[in-house]
Amino acid sequence: MSWTKLTLAVFLLIPASWTRVSRLNSAIDVAAESFAKAEYEQSITNHQLLVEEFGYASAELDYNLGLSNHYAEKVDEATGYYDKASTATDKTLASFAFNQGGVLLGKKKEYEPALSKFKSALIQDPNNEVARHNYELLARWLQRDEERKNEDQNKPEPSEFAKRKKAEADRMVEQFRFKDALNLMNGALQQDETVAAYQDFITSLQEITEIDEK
Predict the structure, then answer these.
(1) Which pTM value belongs to this model?
(2) Per-residue confidence (pLDDT) for residue 60, from 0 to 100
(3) pLDDT value at position 151?
(4) What's the sign of the alpha-carbon dihedral 99, 101, 106, 111?
(5) What confidence tens digit (pLDDT) does each residue in 46-72 have?
């Protein structure tokens, strides 16, 4: 028997499952490579091939598809895959998936649901510092936003006197006379409490003046 025939005979004895595993591993490498190269559309295709051709399924695959769709700006698809990955038994992976889901919700300005996602990420893995940062930052922003809303609701309606003084101060600002504008507004506030409707403007003038004086 020639070496060619012997080689062929040995190859034919290799179980089909072995070649399938080899092809699967190769496909996994290709999918990972396309993501690493930031070829996100191709990464989606390559990862989906693992499902369609090999019937491969895992929380890691769902997470990778979430990332690929996320960076390809396919938000709805990414959200679905992150949601699937968040059910992973691997707490760290589930935490990452919850965090990424929160990021997408935050970009859509759905802040309360985003906060809930970040909280879920921390429940899964209290050591997820990225999720902790996102949670604390968004929580503080929401608290400050609520405070601003309350301040706006409590602001008095400015009188005609207050409106005139604000207009005068605006003209001074246009001339870069910030300190004069601040003095004008503070003096007006002592005469008319409705000038407090422009407290944000007064605070900004105070900050600019302090910077100029340093």
Answers:
(1) 0.64
(2) 92
(3) 66
(4) negative
(5) 899 888 888 888 999 999 999 999 999
Count of other CB atoms within 10 angstroms of residue 2: 7
Q: Are 75 and 67 in contact (CB under 8 A)?
A: no
Q: Residue 109 is part of a domain; what is its CATH number?
A: 1.25.40.10
If asked whether residues 149 and 172 sit together in one domain, one would say no
DSSP letter at 59 equals: H
Distance, CA of 129 to CA of 135 (rounded, Å): 10
The region that residue 55 occupies, defined by phi over 0 for left and psi between -120 and 50 for alpha, beta otherwise, is: left
Q: State the virtual CA torsion across 16, 19, 20, 25 in degrees, nearest 10.
A: 160
Among 154, 179, 194, residue at a domain's last position: 154
Within a domain: 35: no
Tokens describing residue 204: 């900004």
Q: If you write DSSP's letter for every residue of 153-212 in order, what string do you get?
A: HHPPPPPHHHHHHHHHHHHHHHTT-HHHHHHHHHHHHHH-GGGGGGHHHHHHHHHHHHHH
Q: How far, in Å, CA of 90 to CA of 18, rounded?
A: 28
Cβ atoms within 10 Å of 178's Cβ, excluding its own: 19
Among all chains, which residue has been given the structure tokens 């004008």? 184
